[in-house]
Amino acid sequence: MIDLRSDTITVPTPEMREAMAKALVGDDVYGEDPTVNRLQEISAKLFGKEAALFFPSGTMANQAALLAHTERGDEVVLDSDAHIYYYEAGAMALLSGVQPRLINAAIFGREELEQALRPKNVHFPKTSLVCIENTHNRAGGTVWPIKAIHEIGLASKDHGLKVHMDGARIFNAATALDVSVADISEHVDSVQFCLSKGLAAPAGSMLVGSKEFIQKAYRARKVLGGGMRQAGILAAAGIIAIEKMSKRLAEDHANARLLAEELEETGSLEVNLETVQTNMVMVDVSKTNRTGEQWSKELLAKGIKVNPVGPYVLRFVTHKDVSREDIINTVRAIRESV
Ligand code: TLP
Hints:
Elements: E1 2-3, H1 14-22, H2 34-47, E2 51-55, H3 58-69, E3 75-79, H4 83-86, H5 91-96, E4 99-103, H6 110-116, E5 127-133, H7 146-158, E6 162-166, H8 170-177, H9 181-185, E7 190-194, E8 205-209, H10 211-223, H11 232-243, H12 249-265, E9 280-284, H13 292-301, E10 304-305, E11 307-310, E12 313-317, H14 324-337
Parallel strand pairs: 1-10, 3-4, 3-5, 5-6, 6-7
Antiparallel strand pairs: 2-8, 7-8, 9-12, 11-12
């Protein structure tokens, strides 16, 4: 099987398993797990923020960020395809009791943000937070230019808003731009990043921000049932994810590029090559008179797993457990089917 459904399917490396087996652990609810503490220190330092907190999942870390940044009834500005809004099971409404104010662009600027804000008036909710997603999942792994993040950071400050970045794949963004994750995070208040996607850890996400913010998020994590005990077993893999696995992502990006160019050449499959900036390829199959669902079934029969993400769109995600050869075989199988 060649599994291109997501980079979440990556399995831990032998080095991770060894580090997990040997990890020093303690009760993390008491703050006594040395490996979790080390992972948190490494993360805060790497992102140029005061503090960091380990979470079981990206969804929980994002939702804890919302709980920490907002009050019930607030409005949160984010794009209509943002994972926090689109893929988190309505959690922002259920848990924080906030309402979304949607922008129809994955990457937006001061103008779109200001259009989404309303004057202070008894009729209007209080807007407290802006969320941006980098890389942007539903936009095909596209990267926010640092200048655009800076612009949103400044505009948000002007309006007294905090900025949270869902940086599930921020190391892919840093690789594509050849900058550090600290450079990308400088103008936002908090960042969530995943250890369990392209970085191949079995589970876990980090939230970074100011000490005050992380203290609030710590309480929110407990409320959400995310206080773990000997979590150092997972954190040990997380440290390798950050220190080693973040350095090999260019390989996945090159594989995505190859796949995108080869599929685009078929003529009947459409790929917007400009959006292929990291490890995802969105393929429009509408010209083939088959749906994404039908394609995914057909490819499954040929040993290729891929997810439809719209009626006529397939999402291919490259990662460490698919090789260049797998990509060439995938292209061959798809060519036979078009
Ligand atoms: N994304 C998953 C699915 O949930 C769609 C995937 O296969 O891409 N933010 C972003 C931008 C994400 O892409 C994801 C996961 C998350 C947050 C949530 O992380 P987890 O799965 O750890 O809760």
